[in-house]
Amino acid sequence: MSAHLSAAPPPSVRVRAPGKVNLALRVGPVGNDGYHPLATIFQAVSLFEEVTATHSMPGSGISLTVSGPQADAVPTDETNLAWRAAALLAERTGLPADVGLHITKGVPVAGGMAGGSADAAAALLACDTLWDAGLPRQELVELAAELGADVPFSLLGHTAVGTGRGDLLTPAMTRGEFHWCFGTQREGLSTPSVFRRFDELAGPSTPDVAPAADDTELMHALRAGDAVALGKALHNDLEAPALDLRPELAAVLEVATDSGALGVVVSGSGPTVAALGRSRQHALALGAAWTAADVVDAVWCATGPAPGTQLITSISR
Ligand code: C5P
């Protein structure tokens, strides 16, 4: 064999997982466990996190690197949700937690689009494949729910109704593609503080959360592929607390509305604002309007629904 040939690369697995927007998000009174019951409709969008899991020497433990937009804002230690996903999978399967993880960010950081949850979902599938653990899908979903309320949806993708903490999912029927533009801010908003402000604003009289089935018009719009009706039905109970914590967001909503967006809503716990366009071109124009008005730090155009967590490549020795 030629001396020039280098050794084969170590086995590695590359997985991608989508970010999401909440088309409707209804929040009930905080429970004793510190969580709020939710009735939500998630849509996965074509902004993806990629996680590569590479074989590492026995005993080397977990290591993590991050690249892509806003990578410097992401922790690379055991507080990272992808790291925790690998550690949890190892613990539950009894396999050694030896893996090199690399995250390529494609979802805005701390923006209410569940980028960290997508990392956890992708790391679960990547390590399950690399370690040949072969956990049934349902067990991966259960581990996902332990890692965070939005992690199971990132595994599932497409469009789904979420109840409980948002982790009990029922797939929703949709037709066609919806064209989104997302306006993001350099400085994120912490999800717990937005929920806390929700409690403060709502006072002790928060009504019980309405079942997502109450979002009948929204579900009809999805089934009909009717973007105009979907735009009118977008709703987020966390929008008021997010605006209260970040009053500048009002201008982001206003610019998109004035530019003819079919609907505008704060995404999840914010501060990302989602605007629904009539077409791909119109979504791009909404982003251009935000940039011209200087009310966002970045714009990201995407379509929904997008598939859930998927294996992209698997290289074995
Ligand atoms: O589940 P996850 O770690 O993503 O949630 C982060 C925080 O957001 C929780 O600790 C809780 O304070 C808040 N949260 C909530 N109700 C939910 C989901 C999250 O109060 N349904």
UniProtKB/TrEMBL annotation:
ATP binds at residues 108-118. It catalyses: 4-CDP-2-C-methyl-D-erythritol + ATP = 4-CDP-2-C-methyl-D-erythritol 2-phosphate + ADP + H(+). It is an enzyme of class 2 (transferase). The keyword Repeat does not apply. Its EC number is 2.7.1.148. InterPro entries: GHMP_kinase_C_dom, GHMP_kinase_C_sf, GHMP_kinase_N_dom, IspE, Ribosomal_Su5_D2-typ_SF, Ribsml_uS5_D2-typ_fold_subgr. Residues 218-292 form the GHMP kinase C-terminal domain. Pathway: Isoprenoid biosynthesis; isopentenyl diphosphate biosynthesis via DXP pathway; isopentenyl diphosphate from 1-deoxy-D-xylulose 5-phosphate: step 3/6. Residues 80-157 form the GHMP kinase N-terminal domain. The active site is at residues 20, 150. It holds the Pfam family GHMP_kinases_C. It comes from the Bacteria. Keywords: ATP-binding, Isoprene biosynthesis, Kinase, Nucleotide-binding, Transferase. GO terms for molecular function: kinase activity. Belongs to the GHMP kinase family. IspE subfamily. HAMAP family: IspE (MF_00061). Catalyzes the phosphorylation of the position 2 hydroxy group of 4-diphosphocytidyl-2C-methyl-D-erythritol. PANTHER family: 4-DIPHOSPHOCYTIDYL-2-C-METHYL-D-ERYTHRITOL KINASE, CHLOROPLASTIC (PTHR43527). This is 4-diphosphocytidyl-2-C-methyl-D-erythritol kinase. The gene is ispE.
